[in-house]
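Letters spell out the chain; the tokens describe the backbone. To illustrate:

===
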Amino acid sequence: MQPQNILILPGWQNSGPAHWQSLWQDQLGYVRVEQHDWLRPLRGDWIARLEDVLLSLDGPAVLVAHSMGCQLVAAWAALSKNTHRVKAALLVAPGDAERDELRPVLGSWSPLVLQILPFPSTLVASTDDPYCTVERATQFADAWGSRLVNIGARGHINADSGLGDWPAGQALLQELIQI
């Protein structure tokens, strides 16, 4: 798979320079799907942007989503007629936009899409994620038909988690690419 067909889907507020997604982009040539507004993410806008990027690619894509990027994958897959353009998805630390403290900013994401994804996926969860309980992440994995990988207490699985370029995550991604 060509690096330009591996799409990085950050969540709300984007992924900073020390985040594993940014490191993968810088080191491996993966492509970030840039959103128009990282601070006020509107579901319809984010879905349209992902669709545009996918339609511009030659060949299938693998999606690498973090936080609200995971919800983007589910929402896009429920609406798009182009899901055949995605080979697989790595879904890391899904954000739960239905948490009371997140509803004011992420209101357009509710209700969350909870249906089987039409491509293979792996969901990576942490036992102490401040934005999604491991129980809720398990519900997402079940609803989306994703393989669940619990990596223990690693917070929101971001730069603050001390993962660096996260070789274990890269190994999970390579497993999906080989499917």
Remarks:
- The CA atoms of residues 31 and 173 lie 15 Å apart.
